[in-house]
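task queued by scheduler; priority normal; single chain, no ligands, no partner chains; default sampling; output format set to structure tokens
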Amino acid sequence: MIGKLKGVVDSYGDDFVLLDVQGVCYQVHCPSRVLQQLPRVGEAAVLAIETMVREDMIKLFGFAEDSEREWFRILMTVQGVGAKVALGILGIMKASEVANAIALGDKTAITRAPGVGKRVAERIVTELKDKAPAFASVEDDTIAVSQSVAENVASRPVADAVSALSNLGYQPAQASAAVAAAVKTAGEDASAEKLIRLGLKELA
């Protein structure tokens, strides 16, 4: 199996790069974001590779980092998510951003990827929410608030505070982070009004 390729960029296609490795050109399919970051034709490039072997083909997928390749594999464990959808998601988000979106239950962020509808995004969040925190760059408290709200198990003040901040135009991740910080300051018994006031102070 091929795990990494180091070579010279020979040419580009719509969703792939031809990488010349000592005279052998490998066709490597990459997320659009990765293709845009690769150097010009004739320059050196390195890609982490996922090799997909089927009865009728061998296909190579390339990524800028090992973490992207890992998330490519993880995403494809979800029913209804194939290579095309996984590439689409990684084409608009870095690996850490995918993990953050899933950990925070931000289905809207995932639906921005081509070919990803609400149902698939919901399945991704539901099936991978336990794996995502290990890769996420947001704090555990923020993830806990976000997931408790999404699962309707958050206390009423916390849920109301997150809802209020979201209605003011803040992103779900921002609202959850602000309320998590507010809970740390005011305690779990604080009223929604206090959490909102402290949350706005955090966001200011």
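post-processing summary
- DSSP finds ten helices and five strands in the chain.
- Residues 172-186 form the longest helix (15 residues).
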